[in-house]
Design goal:
- The complex is a heterotrimer of chains A (193), B (438) and C (306).
- Chain A is mainly α and 193 residues long.
- Chain A has one domain.
- Helix content of chain A is 65%, strand content 0%.
- Chain B has one domain.
- The longest helix of chain B has 34 residues.
- Chain B is built from 22 helices and no strands.
- With 438 residues, chain B is an all-alpha fold.
- By secondary structure, chain C is an alpha/beta fold.
- Chain C contains twelve helices and twelve strands.
- Chain C is globular, with a radius of gyration of 19 Å.
- Classes of the chains: A mainly alpha (193), B mainly alpha (438), C alpha/beta (306).
- At the A-B interface, helix 1, helix 2, helix 3 and helix 4 of A face helix 1, helix 2, helix 3, helix 4 and helix 7 of B.
- The site of one sodium ion has 6 residues of chain B, from helix 17.
- Chain B: One of its GO terms (molecular function) is transmembrane transporter activity.
- Chain B: Part of the tripartite ATP-independent periplasmic (TRAP) transport system.
- Chain B: It is a multi-pass membrane protein.
């Protein structure tokens, strides 16, 4: 959340695999942030061309849309690493540490399963567009496999970070749900407007 | 299976899955996938990435990261403190001037930030310690800022209004205008309560004010100028023919970043990265929920649940106001547990047909819904603003913050009732500026 | 009974919903164990995201401006090409021509077939001035419905701002747009008459015709029983006749609405039409032929329909 002190980050505990995944997720986060900045710049350029130069703005809207989509999907692993995906952790807090551990393994497996499904069919959709040479129905005519690529890449990286998070808990490097034995109400993960 | 029964089943499973502690977006995908597999067949899984991508394929979504950047870049400067100080110096002769200036600063800051925690943090960092130093009760100090912060999503610009506009296909420009007067009304109610409770606490010393010289009053004014420049610039871009509301957000983001860098000397790349990182984190989280909720609403529609509930409500012979009360209770409960964006996205496809069938105005309803979400932000168990305040003033007990916030919740309930009695508070301004709704 | 799902983007008062409804009602009345469930107002798929699931058999039927899928089958761009269709009767003759056969062959590649053919027309609206010929567009900020129109209007010296038809009203009100081009029904349903000084409806000469058929997944159709197929085709025939009549009425109705709102009505003359078409040949037609394999033959086929 904006402007508040402190930020939680996934622990790596010096584990090589966890550190590698953390590095990949961070890189993806930088790219995602860069894409958002690019979207700001392009939108302002579009307003300038239209309002000041009275010129045509054919490609900007589409470019901005694809940048925001790609920023969202590529940002997923980084936000997972920063514990930024909001959840309802009422039950995990109330549970005893053992039960909490079991619940964590269960929800993480469920998360990995659904992200794996999205990855599989996202790849298939991307491949479909690539094979058939689809383009967008605009004057710009973007080859659609380029923006669609964000689907398999984003979900693959998210899956990687989720697997790393699960492993970190299994190796006791991290507490399930980020809650240690003494966690009370104020250590919850929150976010959002 | 009967779609209504199916709908109840979906509701139960959604609650179960979300309460397991899974992230909201992934939970929505899990529930959607489960029901699609069972009732539409395995092949419908193929569609999920396509629908998810399609929901994000919308230019209006750009304004979400943009308004978040606006809020967090300004929140990371001393702009909030300047604003607060200026108001304080000018309002000092008013009894209880300090809490009034805090709430006024929250309202003004809201007019620039689309997000509640950003508003809360920006004003609270300065306002809470100052109020406590001058002897205001802890509950009032914490509660007024927690409540004032929630104005961020009612007074335009507002990320939740954008999300509502996208989910229900209503005009974002119109929604923004609809939030202005209800926002001011809430500020008034908050101020009234703060004064009353300070007076009742018997600590008359805080009401007797420190005085500032005219010189002190005038010299602070230039420090509020960048702030006003941003608000006026954004309003001019949006309603003056330069840009559509979604594009305006980018102008605002650029303005705020430039002002933060030039006037508030936010030069250090590391500081800039913090602003960008926090904005990216919050934006991605919200956009992913939007995308996942899109898949969820596809599932509801495909299984004919949305349509059946709307038809069923249409056949019910209940007073529309009873219906509205029920909807409000539902929203309140949902808001206790879920962030506003998730509630809006999950509830809008179901609630909107009900609301319009019963003859309510969707723009007016957006305001009522937003105030409901504001209540959720300062009530347990996951009232986000409470935790922001807790971060700023760790020595005030969460219980005290919570107790201090409760009277402000009552103010919001009164505001909802006033809006029901006088819908014009919300609808007059958009109608006056943009003509009657299409 | 077997259920087919039909998705479209319009409200249930729209002519395209009524077309779908006629087919659904006729099939239900035929009592052949087949039911069509209609999902209007993009309640299932977004407008531009219907063709892919249709072609993959995840959606059974849709009513769709075919040019939306022009990025997947460039040939479809001919179904929203300026000056290709002169009026509604000409459009009806195109539907029966070798040109349409060629388009249907492209659809078959994607496992898609046509049940109901239909064209809808549209016009131009100007915030301050009338738009009739190409010279009226010079220097104006405009929004065009469709890629080929954007290319042609840019050729006329206009600046193009891309936005959806639902954004036209606000953009005109705040002055972002000076002129707009869209369908007759969108002009009315988005109340553009409140924001413009002049309207050029589709009349004797009209530039903007968009092919918006009721499509079906071909394999799904082939898997139905002969009785079910016949019921669908019978319903489709009835709907097609209705569609043509209503399409003609919509242009006149939009003219009336704008007139009543006190908006000046301009007419496009034959000379205007020819000037636009000459411009289109240099811009949109040229671009189409360049980017479409076999594009010249398709264009010639379309132009050969009298
Ligand atoms: Na705001
Ligand atoms: Na809450």
């Amino acid at each position: 959340m904006a402007g508040t002190p402190g930020i939680t980050v996934a622990k790596t505990g010096g584990n090589k695999f966890l550190r590698l995944v953390a590095a990949i997720s961070t890189l993806a986060g930088w790219i995602s942030a860069g894409m958002i900045v690019a979207a700001v710049a392009i939108t302002c350029q579009m307003i300038f061309i239209r309002f000041v130069m009275n010129g045509s703005t054919v490609w900007q809207t589409e470019a901005v849309i694809y940048l925001v989509i790609a920023a969202t999907l590529l940002g997923l692993p980084y936000v997972q690493r920063l514990r930024g995906h909001v959840n309802v952790d009422l039950i995990p807090i109330w549970l005893a540490p053992k039960a909490r551990y079991v619940l964590f393994v269960f929800t993480m497996s469920l998360s990995i399963l659904i992200v794996g499904t999205m990855l599989f069919y996202g790849f298939e959709y991307w491949h479909f567009a690539w094979e058939r040479g689809w383009r967008s129905d605009t004057v710009w005519g973007v080859r659609l496999w380029i923006p669609y690529l964000a689907l398999p890449v984003g979900f693959a990286l998210l899956m990687l970070q989720l697997v790393a998070d699960l492993i970190a808990v299994l190796l006791r490097i991290e507490d399930p749900f980020g809650l240690d034995e003494f966690s009370g109400l104020d250590s919850r993960t929150t976010g959002g407007v | 299976m009967d779609p209504l029964l199916l709908g109840a089943l979906v509701a139960v499973f959604t609650i179960l899955v979300l309460f397991s502690g899974i992230s909201v977006a992934l939970g929505l995908l899990v529930v959607s996938a489960g029901f699609l597999i069972v009732f539409d067949g395995m092949r419908s899984l193929e569609l999920m990435p396509e629908i998810l991508f399609g929901k994000l394929n919308n230019f209006a979504l750009l304004s979400i990261p943009m308004f978040i950047i606006m809020g967090s870049s300004i929140a990371s400067t001393r702009a909030g403190a300047d604003l607060y100080e200026a108001l304080e110096r000018w309002l000092t002769r008013v009894p209880g001037g300090l809490v009034i200036s805090n709430l006024g600063a929250c309202a003004l800051f809201s007019a620039m930030s689309g997000s509640s925690p950003a508003t809360c943090a920006a004003i609270g960092k300065m306002g809470i310690p100052e109020m406590r130093k001058r002897g205001y009760p802890d509950g009032v100090a914490a509660g007024s800022i927690a409540a004032g912060g929630t104005l961020g999503i009612l007074i335009p610009p507002s990320v939740t209004m954008i999300v509502y506009g996208i989910a229900t296909e209503t005009s974002i420009g119109r929604l923004f205008l609809a939030g202005v007067f209800p926002g001011l009304m809430l500020v008034g109610l908050f101020m009234a309560w703060s004064l009353y409770s300070t007076w009742r606490s018997g600590n008359m010393a805080v009401l007797a004010s420190t005085t500032y010289s005219w010189r002190e009053k005038v010299e602070i004014l230039p420090r509020v100028l960048p702030f006003l420049a941003i608000i006026l610039g954004v309003l001019y871009a949006m309603y003056g023919g330069i840009a559509t509301p979604s594009e305006t957000a980018a102008v605002g983001a650029l303005l705020c970043l430039v002002i933060a860098m030039v006037i508030y000397k936010l030069w250090n790349p590391a500081d800039l990265w913090v602003v960008l990182r926090d904005s990216t984190k919050e934006s991605v989280m919200i956009l992913f929920i939007i995308a996942a909720a899109g898949v969820f609403s596809y599932m509801l529609s495909s299984l004919f649940i949305t349509q059946s509930i709307a038809a069923w409500i249409g056949t019910l012979d209940v007073n529309p106001w009873v219906l509205m009360a029920a909807v409000n209770v539902f929203l309140l409960i949902a808001g206790f547990f879920l962030p506003p964006v998730a509630v809006i996205l999950m509830a809008a496809p179901i609630l909107l047909p009900i609301i319009t069938t019963a003859g309510f105005d969707p723009i007016w309803f957006a305001v009522v819904l937003t105030i409901n979400m504001e209540i959720g932000l300062i009530s347990p168990p996951v009232g986000l603003n409470l935790y922001v305040i807790n971060g700023i003033a760790p020595d005030i007990k969460l219980k005290t913050i919570l107790a201090g916030s409760m009277p402000y919740v009552a103010c919001m309930v009164i505001a909802i009732i006033l809006l029901c009695l006088f819908p014009g508070i919300a609808t007059w301004l958009p109608d006056a500026v943009m003509g009657t709704a299409i | 009974a077997q259920e087919l799902r039909l998705s479209h983007q319009w409200s249930d008062s729209d002519v395209r919903h009524q077309v779908a409804k006629i087919v659904a009602d006729e099939v239900a009345a035929a009592d052949v164990g087949l039911e069509i469930r209609i999902f209007p107002t993009q309640s299932l798929f977004k407008a531009r995201e219907q063709y892919t699931p249709l072609s993959r058999g995840q959606l059974d039927m849709t009513v769709l401006p075919l040019s939306y899928a022009g990025g997947q089958q460039p040939a479809y761009n001919l179904t929203l090409m300026p000056g290709l269709v002169k009026n509604h009767d000409h459009a009806a003759r195109l539907n029966e021509s070798p040109f349409m056969e060629a388009i249907e062959a492209k659809m078959a590649e994607d496992d898609v077939m046509v049940l109901v053919h239909g064209y809808l027309a549209g016009g131009f609206a100007g915030k301050d001035e009338c738009i009739t010929g190409p010279e009226d567009m010079s220097g104006k900020q405009t929004r065009a419905a469709g890629k080929a129109f954007e290319q042609m209007l840019a050729g006329a010296g206009a600046s193009i701002a891309s936005m959806s038809s639902s954004e036209i009203y606000n953009a005109m009100q705040t002055g972002v747009l000076d002129a707009a081009n869209t369908s007759s029904s969108s002009f009315v349903s988005y109340r553009i008459y409140e924001q413009v000084a002049c309207y050029t409806p589709a009349g004797e000469y009209a530039l903007w015709f968009m092919y918006q058929p009721l499509l079906m997944n071909k394999s799904t159709f082939d898997d139905l029983s002969p009785e079910q197929q016949q019921a669908l085709l019978d319903g489709a025939a009835k709907a097609e006749a209705f569609y043509l009549e209503e399409a003609k009425k919509e242009d006149a109705a939009s003219r009336e609405v704008f007139e009543q709102a006190g908006v000046e009505i301009a007419e496009m003359t034959e000379a205007d039409f020819n000037a636009w078409r000459a411009l289109a040949q240099e811009t949109s037609y040229k671009a189409f032929v360049e980017e479409t394999p076999g594009g010249q033959e398709l264009l010639d086929l379309a132009l050969s329909v009298d």
